[in-house]
């Protein structure tokens, strides 16, 4: 399966296949093996079209290129894989070699889409942060006056105890608004960094979640204990994990399984900055999944899937993660929701032994 004429294609990062008009694979370079998650011997046993659940766009592309003796280009093509639940999101170029052979270049678009999505989320977060900060300050200023006026009114109504209930309501609601404003302003305050063992953070959150939900909840640990410590704000990291775990518990109504996973990620790019080493933290649950109605706006402030929710948990979580130079993303369908947080290690952190 490796004629010498194709030897130069072995070194390419771009996945390349050479196929006959019926889909028989004549050659596959190593990059295409990685993309299709199949070795050469396995690829040789199957026509290319048999690898996909819906191969019609691929069949048409090859047929068009061969019949017109000209390259055929598809800039955005999604091909569901037959042997897994995943799909290839690629840019496809088909170039005829002769009447029966075509060279296929399959350039994955996932990384480009991920970078574009990260930039979109970063811009969205910056706009949200400015809006929230301005709004919170405008709300905070009159709150002290409202509460002070309620206290004075309560003093004046000392001989009317039946009206005290109303002044109590005013004071309690002012306190509730104050708490809300404090939460809105929390990401903009200076954070205190130190060496943090991420597993100490996870264990603390695990204890809190199990204490709050005594029956029906299982939290599984899947830790890489060789990870070095982070230089981070421990309280903010606790809040990040706690928000994600509580959301999972509430989505499952307190009955289900959550898996906490830590791994090292190498050579990752976050907001166009390359990091040699990063922490990959995954929080996975087997709940019903995120509703489609809020999926695209889940990190927006005041967006929530629960009637009693404030819609601030994920907004604050995203803000704290971004303050640490990291990123957060999610994958969700019924029975599986996974939030993945990437936090880069500093160069000097990566060389330390774990604490």
Automatic annotation (TrEMBL):
The UniProt entry, under InterPro entries, shows: HATPase_C_sf (IPR036890), HATPase_dom (IPR003594), His_kinase_dom (IPR005467), HisK_dim/P_dom (IPR003661), HisK_dim/P_sf (IPR036097), PAS (IPR000014), PAS-like_dom_sf (IPR035965), PAS_fold (IPR013767)
- Where are the bilayer-spanning segments? none
Its UniProt entry gives the catalysed reaction(s) as:
ATP + protein L-histidine = ADP + protein N-phospho-L-histidine
Q: What is its EC number?
A: 2.7.13.3
Keywords of the record: ATP-binding, Hydrolase, Kinase, Nitrogen fixation, Nucleotide-binding, Phosphoprotein, Transferase, Two-component regulatory system
The PAS domain covers 9-55
- SMART domains, A to Z: HATPase_c (SM00387), HisKA (SM00388), PAS (SM00091)
Domain Histidine kinase, by residue range, is: 134-347
Which superkingdom?
Bacteria
Give one Pfam family, short name only.
HisKA
So what does this one do? Member of the two-component regulatory system NtrB/NtrC, which controls expression of the nitrogen-regulated (ntr) genes in response to nitrogen limitation. Under conditions of nitrogen limitation, NtrB autophosphorylates and transfers the phosphoryl group to NtrC. In the presence of nitrogen, acts as a phosphatase that dephosphorylates and inactivates NtrC.
Protein name from the UniProt record: Sensory histidine kinase/phosphatase NtrB
Question: What gene does this protein come from?
Answer: glnL
